[in-house]
Design brief:
Layout (H helix, E strand, L loop, with lengths): L14 H7 L2 H11 L4 H8 L6 H16 L20
Helix pairs in contact: 2-3, 2-4
Length: 88
């Protein structure tokens, strides 16, 4: 017997649902990479420069991580940026 329930990540929403929540450009890039395509093919498909693909995928993966990292205490905590020294 099979169930049509989504497979959940350890904590948060399932990955395929999270990919659908990403901006279209990021979602397509993630799907193409998941299907094994290299940077050049992704660049051609998205009509961007090959050099932009690594950064695009890095941003897309961070957004995906945030969507799949929700926990019972609410949304993921943002990383704190280094504190700037205060003037005295």
């Amino acid at each position: 017997m099979t169930h049509d329930l989504p497979i959940l990540s350890l904590i948060g929403v399932d990955r395929s649902s999270a990919v659908r929540e990403l901006p279209a450009l990021h979602a397509v890039a993630i799907r193409l990479r998941d299907d094994g395509f290299d940077d050049h093919v992704i660049a051609v498909a998205l009509e961007i420069d090959d050099a932009q693909v690594p950064t695009l995928l890095q941003i897309a993966n961070r957004k995906l991580e945030n969507l799949t990292a929700l926990d019972v205490f609410g949304p993921p905590r943002r990383r704190r940026s280094p504190t700037k020294p205060t003037r005295q």
